[in-house]
Design brief:
The protein is α+β, with helices and mostly antiparallel strands. It folds into three domains: about 100 residues, Pseudouridine synthase (2-Layer Sandwich), CATH 3.30.2350; about 140 residues, 2-Layer Sandwich (Pseudouridine synthase), CATH 3.30.2350.10; about 90 residues, Archaeosine Trna-guanine Transglycosylase, Chain: A, domain 4 (Roll). The chain is built from eight helices and 20 strands. The strands form five sheets. Strands 1, 2, 3, 4, 7, 10, 11, 12 and 13 form a nine-stranded mixed sheet that branches. The protein has a five-stranded mixed sheet with strand order 14-18-19-20-15, covered by helices on one side. A two-stranded antiparallel ribbon has the order 5-6. Strand 12 and strand 13 form a beta hairpin. The protein is globular, with a radius of gyration of 23 Å.
Length: about 325
């Protein structure tokens, strides 16, 4: 049996329809014999697409991966709605006739860009007084839910089909953690004055991992058996590629990895994130140049490396204090020469 360290990193899985996210985790635990496996963002059983699995010590990075924006491609049908907000549920409303044109649909879709509020659906895992909402829904109960704020970074109607009984719209959505695409589809329909449902959903990117990098559970099983699975596992430091990279001299990196707070001269953050492309490196005082669009200017999260190339973990730089503090250390200072 292989050791946990043989599988350490992020395995990009393509979740099939009909599987729960936990089903994928359970299968990989059986195949590898490794218990410390977790996924970075639940997908509904009928949905397919990118499901990052964090293996071994990389499970400590789940929060960063699942908090990164995700991309989805969904199909929206305008003309009827269900109790689950997708086509797996029972129809509860149906329009006798739908009259829409392309311009009106595109305008309605564009309204959902930026910061929006969503009411969690009854068929969801949100808790209410100790019970999951879907448990209450199965009992025939509906409770009041507080709206939640989510951020839609980008939304586009890629294809609009006006023929047939009901209009169909293929949406591409880049959104924050916690966004319910089913609710988004229903809300777009409501903005158009009609009931609507989500008929399909594919997650095409999560944590910077795209669908073309993912493998199916069946292929993963074959790769584990023939010993080639390692070529698909993304190293922890690469899985966090959306974070800025800070390189420090070996002695400074060792102190940071031992839990010490470092005082750095400064970290310069460009006005435009695209100006920070490339790998920053420090001068003698540990100065680096980068930008992190996911965080404000006061608190900047970075991947810390020693100049030997060894990855130390995730650290936070506090701008006003000029201090670098450990957040998730993946390698102790004693592992550095």
């Amino acid at each position: 049996m292989k050791k946990e360290s043989d599988f350490e990193g992020v395995l990009p899985m393509h979740k099939p329809a009909g599987w729960t996210s936990h089903d994928v985790v359970a299968k990989m635990r059986r195949l590898t014999g490794i218990r410390r496996i977790g996924h970075a963002g639940t997908l509904d059983p009928d949905a397919t697409g990118v499901l990052p699995l964090c293996l071994g010590r990389a499970t400590r990075l789940i929060e960063y991966i699942q908090n990164h924006p995700k991309e989805y491609v969904a199909e929206l049908i305008i003309g009827f709605s269900t109790d689950t907000l997708d086509t797996s549920g029972t129809v509860i409303e149906r329009a006798e006739r739908v009259e829409l044109d392309r311009e009106r649909i595109e305008e309605a879709v564009s309204r959902f860009s930026g910061l929006i509020e969503q009411v969690p659906p009854m068929y969801s895992a949100v808790r209410h007084q100790g019970k999951r909402l879907y448990e209450l829904a199965r009992e025939g109960r509906e409770v009041e839910r507080a709206p939640r704020r989510v951020f839609i970074h980008d939304i586009e109607a890629e294809r609009i089909e006006l023929g047939g009984e009901y209009p169909k719209v293929r949406l591409r959505v880049l959104c924050s953690k916690g966004t319910y695409i089913r609710v988004l589809c229903a809300d777009i329909g409501r903005a158009l004055g009609y009931p609507a449902v989500m008929s399909s959903l594919v997650r095409t990117a999560a944590g910077g991992i795209t669908l073309d990098r993912c493998i199916s559970p069946e292929e993963a099983e074959l790769r584990i058996r023939d010993g080639t699975i390692a070529q698909f596992i993304i190293r922890p430091e690469d899985a966090l590629g959306f974070m800025p990279k800070l390189v420090l001299p070996e002695a400074m990196a060792r102190r940071a990895a031992q839990g010490q707070t470092l005082k750095l001269e400064r970290l310069l953050v460009p006005d435009k994130p695209e100006e920070a492309a490339g790998t920053p490196s420090p001068d003698g005082g540990g100065r680096a140049v980068f930008a992190d669009p996911e965080h404000d200017r006061e608190k900047i999260r970075v991947r810390l490396f020693a100049d030997s190339g060894k990855f130390c973990g995730v650290f936070t730089y506090f701008v006003s204090a000029g201090s670098l503090r450990p957040e998730k250390v993946l390698m102790g200072g004693d592992a550095l020469p």
